Structures are given as C-alpha cells and as structure tokens.
Amino acid sequence: MFGFSTETLIDFALTAFETIAILLAVVIAAALLIWVERRLLGVWQDRYGPNRVGPFGILQVAADMIKIFFKEDWIPPFADKAVFVIAPGIIMFTTLMAFAVVPFTETIGVVDLNIGVLFVLAMSSLGVYSVILAGWSSDNKYALLGGMRTAAQMISYEVFMGLSLLGVVLLAGSFDMRAIVESQAGMWNVIPQFPAFVIFFIAGIAEIHRAPFDLPEAEQELTAGYHTEYSGMKFGMFFVGEYLGIVLISCLTTVLFFGGWLGPILPGFVWFALKAGFFICFFVLLRAATVRPRYDQLMAFGWKILLPIALVNVAITGAVVVAMA
Amino acid sequence: MEIAFYLAAIVAVAATARVISCANAVHALLYLIVSLLSVAIVFYTLGAPFAAALEVIVYAGAIMVLFVFVIMMLNLNHETVARERSWLAAKVWIGPGVLGVVLLGVLAVALASGGSMGNVDSTPLMAERIGMTMFGPYVLIVELAAFVLLAALVVAAHLGRDDRDVAEEKRIAAARGRRHPGGEQ
C-alpha cells in the first residue's frame, strides 16, 4: 500500500512546488496591490500617492507590513474570543482555496476540478461567515450592523453571480474552468455573454464588498463596520483578504469571459497576467470614480434589475444552445 | 479515499453531537456548519461531486447564513447561555438517548445482515446525469417543488411589505413640494 514509486514521489513534489508557487504569487500580488491601489488612486485624483519609500514608493508595502506586524493585537474583553480569532482566517482561507481551480495557463494550475465553477461559488458563499462572525463576535453595534448588511448583500449577489455563470457553463457544456477557457478559442465569452459579464463583474464587486458596494464598512455610518474592533495582523488579514478577492474576481473574469491564457504571439501566462491586471486596475478606477449607493438602492438594484436580466440571459442562451445542437 | 470518508464521517457525527450539546446558540450553529461541510466531503468521497458542491453552496453557504443572521439579532448573552445550560440537564437526555439507541440498533442489524441497503455506484455522478434524471423521469416533482417555492416567495413578499413606507414617502414628497428650497428651515 505504501510502496510509492520514484515517479509518484517526483509527481507529488512537483505538484506541491507548483501549489506553493501559485500561493506565493497570489499573496504577493495581493500585497503589492496595497501600493498599486494607492498609486493609481493618486494618478486618477491628480496627486502623488506614496512615493517616499524606495523607488516610486514600492517599498511602501514592506513598510506597511512591518507596521501592521508590530501593532498591538488587541482582543476586546467583551468579545467572543474563539469566534473573534477564527473570523479573519476564514476569508483568507476561502479566497485562497478558490484559486485552486483557476487555470493560469495550459499547464499551470493547482487542480482541474470537474465542478470548478461550483467550487468557486461554494468558497465565495462560505466567505460570508468571515464578515458575519467578525461582526457578531465583536459585540459592538457598528460591527453588528456591518455584519448584517454583509450577510444580506453577499447572499443576494451570490444568486446573480451564480445565474450569470450559467450562460458560460451552457456554452462550454462543462463546469470545468479549463474546458471553459478552451471553449473560447473561437470567440471570447464576453461577446455572446455580455450581459452575464456585466452582472458577474458587478456581483463580484459586491461579493468582496469593494467600493462602490462597501456598505458593510461605510465609514460615515458605521465607523469601520465589521472590523471596527480588529487591530494588528487580524485587521491585516481582512485587508489582504479583500485584495485577494480583487485578484480572484479579476482572474475569474479573465478565465470565464476573456479567454484566460488564449492570445496571439505572447506566451499564455503573459496574456493571463495582462488581462487580469487590466481588471485589477479597473477595480481601483471604480473606487476612485464612483459614489456609494444607499443600502436599499443596492438591494433593489440587485433584485429588480440584475435578477431579471440574468434569468432572461440564461433562458435565451439555453434556447440558442438547444437550437444549435 | 476510504480514509477520507471515515474521517469526514467521524467529524460529521462529532460536530452534530456538539450542535445538540452546545449551550451557546451561535457556537452550536458553527458546529452545524462544520457538520454540513463534512457531509459534503462524504458525498465527494462517495463519487457525487455535484451533490457535494450543492451541499456547500445551498446548505452551508445560504441556509445556514440565514440561521446565523437571525440568531445574531436575538442579542444572546451570558444569561441565555446559562439558561440553555440548565435546560440541558442530565435527565433531558434520557428520552432522545433511548430513541437514538433504538435507531443505532436497527442500523447495526441492517449492516450486520450483509449491508443490503443499496450499493454506491462506483462511477462518479456528474451534473449531466443528475440533470437528465431530474428533468426526465422526475420533471413533475421538480415542477411541484418550484410551485411550492414560488408560493412561499409570494407569501413572504406579501407579509414583508410595509404599507406605512409608501404613505411616509408620499408625505415627505408633499412636504418637500411645499417648502421653499434653500430656505432657513
């Protein structure tokens, strides 16, 4: 039973190496976003942004990290300690797990799961707990309100996200992410599935509660929302979790709607990085350029506009697929 | 895969036991989520990845979030935990314990008599096959379930509608119309 051959061992070592490399690359990309976001916001708001530490201020990441590691990690005495400590870990864990099914190139990727799309949706639906539990365990009214807003917002927008992906799944005939990319060899999904792309992107912003849908942590109303009581590295984990979310949604948009690694001349990985990088910058631009809607407007927009469009899109795509078959 | 199955099964049983015995409602719900996740892994090891994914998305990711949502707003504190603990006294366990042992006995007998409770198919059950079964021979049941869910949705929307909001908005709009814009008030 335990007679491993050398080949299996080498295979195992290679997979482990690839997994760790992807993990590191993703986390480093998320950390670099701290600097990228602030610089880009500076460009769009006609100011410098951080430019003191290192060339172009790129060492700002290191400075921020050092600062956050040495901050006092305070747990409020009135908090539910166990839940309070677990909560920030959940968002990191679920987001990183979702990267496991993302195919970066023809060969790079942790696992080809035949339920890839569902796996991503499952992980994103588990990510809700991080924010809800953080809000509840803090035992603070602003945190609780933030947690409640998140629960409603994320559950609602998960519905539209799932529905918008059904069109893509129908066209590819598979839940496998790699098969979905390969099905786009002739034409990127963004053309036949344009409404689905818009809905997916909007739902993606709401899922990771970025501006303009950052109502769970709206400073003016809720101080800092669900992470009001968090400090030090636990706050840092929420922070990095959000950036990981941006990278994840950008990668998913690339894979599902923009042909993943497909592209002429340049190698696949470069194409993937360029496309994903474009969407990451778009996330930052959205934060710089848009205002926050009211909470009821956010929910009404989802249920009264996105849901009908998503349903019609699924129906039409289904009809076309059946007619073409 | 067999080891994964047994580990997940043990976690599921242990977590479910804690759901019942835990005095803090939110902690009990967290154990229930762990239990559902381990059931998803059991499904996966049995060759039903689609069911496993749906278990996580629907049960752990949506229904349990609503449970947590409601419990969160009940403002539970140390008093409720103490009260819950007093309800979980030893003699409360006798009735359910006896019933549980009876069920366990039935299960043990069934397993001992050759496990003739249907075999698990060795081929993985993929989404296509589930879809064809649901919208083939069982389409009527799917439609009936849709009816029930739609009825529930309509009822919830009706109960949740607040007529006062509409009246209030009209009143505010009327007041805005009267007041001079940019005035002292």
Tell me about this structure:
The complex is a heterodimer of chains A (325) and B (185). Chain A is mostly helical and 325 residues long. Chain A has one domain (73-324). In chain A, 69% of the residues lie in helices and 0% in strands. Chain A has helices at 6-44, 60-70, 81-98, 116-126, 128-137, 141-172, 177-182, 194-207, 219-222, 232-257, 268-289, 295-324. By secondary structure, chain B is mainly α. Chain B folds into two domains: 2-124, Four Helix Bundle (Hemerythrin (Met), subunit A) (Up-down Bundle), CATH 1.20.120; 135-185, no CATH class. Chain B has eight helices and no strands. In chain B, helix 1 (2-21) runs antiparallel to helix 2. The longest helix of chain B is centred in the N-terminal third of the chain and has 24 residues, at 49-72. The mean pLDDT of chain B is 79. Classes of the chains: A mainly alpha (325), B mainly alpha (185). The A-B interface holds A 80, 82-83, 113-115, 118-119, 121-122, 125-126, 128-129, 132-133, 135-136, 144, 147-148, 151-152, 154-155, 158, 162, 175 and B 26-27, 30, 33, 49-50, 52-54, 56-57, 60-62, 65-66, 68-69, 72-73, 126-127.
Short structural description:
The complex is a heterodimer of chains A (325) and B (185). Chain A is mainly alpha-helical and 325 residues long.
Rounded average pLDDT of chain B: 79
Could you tell me the radius of gyration of chain B in angstroms?
25 Å
Instruction: Provide the low-confidence segments of chain A as ranges.
Output: none
Order of helices and strands of chain B: HHHHHHHH
* Total of helices of chain A: 12
Beta percentage of chain B is under 5%
CATH superfamily of the largest domain in chain B: NADH-ubiquinone/plastoquinone oxidoreductase chain 6, subunit NuoJ
Number of strands of chain A: 0
The total of beta strands of chain B comes to: 0
Give the overall form of chain A: globular
Order of H and E elements of chain A: HHHHHHHHHHHH
The tally of helices of chain B reads 8
* Total discrete domains of chain B: 2
Distance between the termini of chain A: 47 Å
Which CATH class of the largest domain in chain B applies here? Mainly Alpha
Biggest sheet record of chain A: none
Membrane topology (chain A): Multi-pass membrane protein
Family (chain A): Belongs to the complex I subunit 1 family.
GO cellular component, one term (chain A): plasma membrane
Keywords (chain A): Cell membrane, Membrane, NAD, Oxidoreductase, Quinone, Translocase, Transmembrane, Transmembrane helix, Ubiquinone
